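Severity: low
Component: inverse-folding endpoint
Summary: output formatting inconsistent between runs
Steps to reproduce: submit the following C-alpha cells with default settings.
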C-alpha cells in the first residue's frame, strides 16, 4: 500500500479494530494527524497497515451516499412544511457497488452480507420506509439502536426489523417441515447480545399478530416507532407487532444486505424528544473523518 504526496489511503475513514483479548475500538486517521507529529503518525499508520494485512478483524467505515430525510417533532404538529435534513449513510462491511440508485429508489444487490449505517445515532424516533424484494425468498431488514459493529456473522447488534420475501419459508424447510410463517411478516428481535421482551412471543422473537407483508415485486410499508426501549411496528397500514425493554435504546440505524436484491424508497426519520437513558443503554459512538 503506497502513500502518495496527496495523502494516505483511507485517511478519511474510520477503522474498527478487534484484537484478541480486547474490546473493539475505533481509529480515525484525521484525528490522529491532529494530535501526533508526522514521524509518530507514520509509525501509527504502519501499524494500522499491518493490522489490515493480518488476520485481525478491521472494518473500514466511510461515507457512501445520501438517502432519505430526517425532520424534527414539528413535522407532526406544525401546519408549515417541516425543515428536513438529508440522511448520510456510511459503509460498514459491504462494498461500494453493493448499493446504487434507480431514480429515487435505493437498490441493494444483496452481496456481500453486511450493512450500511446512518451518520448519527437515534434514540426516540419514527421511521417510515418502503421496501420490496425482487427475488422469491429474499432476505433483508433494518437494525435500530445498533452499534454498527459487525459480529461473527457479519451483522451488527441492535433490534432487527425483519424484511423477508414470502417464499422464504418454502425455501428453508428443515426435515420437510416449513418454518413458522411468522418469519416473513415483520418479526422483531434483539441480536448481538441486545435483549428485548416480545409482545407476541415466538421464543425470544416477537411475531406479527396478522400476516400483512406482500410478495416479490410489491411495495411494503413499515412504520417503526421507537421510544424508550419500546418498538411498535405497522405493516402496510396496521400495527401488528412490538417489543419492549430493549437493553440498548440508542444507536445507529442500519440497512442490511443479506444475499438478495432489495429496493428501498421514501425513508423518513422523525426525531422525537429524548428520554431517561443510562450510558450502558447507548451504543458506542463512532466519529467520522472529515
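Observed output (run 2 of 3):
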Amino acid at each position: 500500500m503506497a502513500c502518495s504526496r496527496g495523502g494516505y489511503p483511507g485517511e478519511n475513514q474510520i477503522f474498527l479494530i478487534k484484537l484478541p483479548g480486547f474490546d473493539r475500538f475505533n481509529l480515525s486517521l484525521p484525528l490522529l494527524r491532529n494530535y501526533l507529529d508526522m514521524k509518530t503518525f507514520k509509525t501509527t499508520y504502519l501499524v494500522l497497515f499491518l493490522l489490515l494485512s493480518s488476520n485481525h478483524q478491521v472494518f473500514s467505515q466511510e461515507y457512501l451516499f445520501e438517502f432519505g430525510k430526517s425532520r424534527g417533532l414539528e413535522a407532526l404538529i406544525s401546519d408549515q412544511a417541516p425543515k428536513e435534513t438529508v440522511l448520510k449513510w456510511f459503509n460498514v462491511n459491504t462494498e461500494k457497488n453493493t448499493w446504487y440508485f434507480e431514480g429515487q429508489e435505493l437498490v441493494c444487490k444483496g452481496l456481500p452480507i453486511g450493512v450500511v449505517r446512518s451518520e448519527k445515532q437515534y434514540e426516540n424516533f419514527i421511521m417510515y420506509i418502503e421496501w420490496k424484494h425482487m427475488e422469491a425468498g429474499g432476505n433483508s431488514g433494518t437494525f435500530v439502536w445498533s452499534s454498527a459493529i459487525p459480529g461473527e456473522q457479519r451483522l451488527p447488534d441492535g433490534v432487527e426489523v425483519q424484511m423477508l420475501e414470502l417464499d422464504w419459508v418454502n425455501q428453508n424447510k428443515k426435515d420437510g417441515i416449513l418454518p413458522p410463517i411468522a418469519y416473513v411478516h415483520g418479526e422483531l428481535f434483539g441480536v448481538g447480545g441486545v435483549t428485548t421482551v416480545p409482545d407476541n412471543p415466538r421464543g425470544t422473537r416477537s411475531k406479527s399478530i396478522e400476516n400483512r407483508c406482500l410478495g416479490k415485486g410489491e411495495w411494503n410499508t413499515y412504520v417503526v416507532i421507537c421510544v424508550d426501549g419500546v418498538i411498535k411496528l405497522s405493516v402496510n397500514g396496521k400495527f401488528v407487532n412490538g417489543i419492549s425493554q430493549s437493553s440498548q435504546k440508542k444507536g445507529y440505524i442500519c440497512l442490511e444486505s443479506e444475499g438478495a436484491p432489495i429496493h428501498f424508497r421514501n425513508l423518513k426519520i422523525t426525531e422525537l424528544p429524548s428520554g431517561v437513558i443510562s450510558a450502558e443503554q447507548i451504543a458506542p459512538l463512532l466519529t467520522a473523518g472529515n
